[in-house]
Amino acid sequence: MTRAGFVALIGEPNAGKSTLLNRMVGAKVSIVTHKVQTTRARIRGVAMEGDAQIVFVDTPGLFTPRRRLDRAMVAAAWGGAADADIVVLLVEAHRGVTDGVVRILEGLQGIGKDRPVALAINKIDRVKSEALLALTKDLNERYPFVKTFLISAERGHGVQDLREWLAGELPESPWLYPEDQIADLPMRMIAAEMTREKLTLRLHQELPYQLTVETENWEERKDGSARIDQVIYVIRDGHKGIVLGNKGETIKAVGQAARAEMEEFLGRKVHLFLQVKVRSGWLDEAERYSEMGLDFKDGNA
């Protein structure tokens, strides 16, 4: 007997969803930065636990949307939760019950009727045990969670317990993916996400949400290496200079860091070529949303 199904990880931006997904899967399939809102698409990572195959849907963080892209991301997050067999709400221990968490709990009233919703309190190493117990009690009084887990996604504490519980709760089913497939995103998109992570880390506050990365070409070479051509789209000329940096230093450093990560992920040599192009309206182009796994129509006000 095998089990298989979808698990949606939801929560506020920066709650640790991407870190937990990567820890569960055992490979880096979702970008992790100190920035909020770095996960744009519903990335599915596949984890094996005994005879069960857990397909994780790492949703964008739930927040109050202002722009079209924001609205499309929030719609994708709730869509991922509504499509899942099990939902796991991540709450940061040290932030507690914020206004954002209250809004998510309200949203769960609708979708939680048809599927089990578990609570995972993350970053437990940042608070004392008394505060942790109080937060656990408070959240369970606000919503009837079927199970509560105290975890540290970054350090791995409690993660195996959560994984084993999820495996036992999934419906009986044939496996949905080949056993060795860790993500259903094409490698072109994973490579683009790796480059976008390096840009986000390098540029800090300057323009992380106003750029996107696309893999334009992927060429398999006879020697086993891969040539990857990517375009970094920015919305105005001034941003192009920021991405390039003084004498091209920034883009060179980004390219080196991204290439090293791609080589580690793929287990072979990568030749990475980056270009920066100005595309002022990319935030309003349906094609860009499709590249990110989002629905352009969901961004309508």
List its traits:
three-stranded mixed sheet; globular; Rossmann fold; six-stranded mixed sheet; GMP Synthetase, Chain A, domain 3; 2 domains; 37% helix; 301 residues; alpha/beta
Lay out the secondary structure.
Elements: E1 3-11, H1 17-25, E2 43-49, E3 52-58, H2 68-83, E4 86-92, H3 99-111, E5 117-122, H4 129-142, E6 147-150, H5 159-169, H6 187-203, E7 211-220, E8 226-234, H7 237-244, H8 249-266, E9 270-278, H9 286-291
Helix pairs in contact: 6-8
Structure description:
By secondary structure, the chain is α/β, with parallel strands linked by helices. It folds into two domains: 3-169, Rossmann fold, CATH 3.40.50; 187-299, GMP Synthetase, Chain A, domain 3. It contains nine helices and nine strands. It has helices at 17-25, 68-83, 99-111, 129-142, 159-169, 187-203, 237-244, 249-266, 286-291; strands at residues 3-11, 43-49, 52-58, 86-92, 117-122, 147-150, 211-220, 226-234, 270-278. The strands form two sheets. A six-stranded mixed β-sheet has the order 2-3-1-4-5-6, sandwiched between helices. Strands 7-8-9 form a three-stranded mixed β-sheet. Helix 4 links the parallel strand 5 (117-122) and strand 6 (147-150). Helix 6 packs across helix 8 (249-266). The longest helix has 18 residues, at 249-266. The N and C termini lie far apart (46 Å). The model is unreliable at 33-40 (pLDDT under 50).
